[in-house]
Amino acid sequence: MAGLVNAVDKGMANEVAPYGLTSMEFSLLRHCLEEECTATHLARVLPVDGSRVSRLVTGLVEKGLLRRRRLRSDRRIVMLRLSEEGRELTSHIVEKMKLYDAMLTEGVDEEELRVFVSVSARIIANHAAMQESG
Does residue 134 have a pLDDT over 70? Predict the structure, then answer.
């Protein structure tokens, strides 16, 4: 399993590097593509701690790819959303990643992929449960 994770991570890093991004920065941008979110939410869904998310957000804001917005109802809450440039770049890279994913799964039939996704989801859920109880 570690070999697969390593291969996929290296592949993603190679795909996003020409755009001046790390794979973690891209993951963060991809999570913000659908809707605004908070750094706390990103720390939960990405495999990094809050301080690392904060550093990533600051770097992406400085690159002009991400914007911060404080809620009027609670100024302590900072919402993150992609800038127009960030949305265009992230959408472009997502399309490239779809092609990369297609190459990775070449020769794997639909049923094999369905089983793999199901087993992976179970492993991820087990990991989350261990984290919550530990």
Answer: no
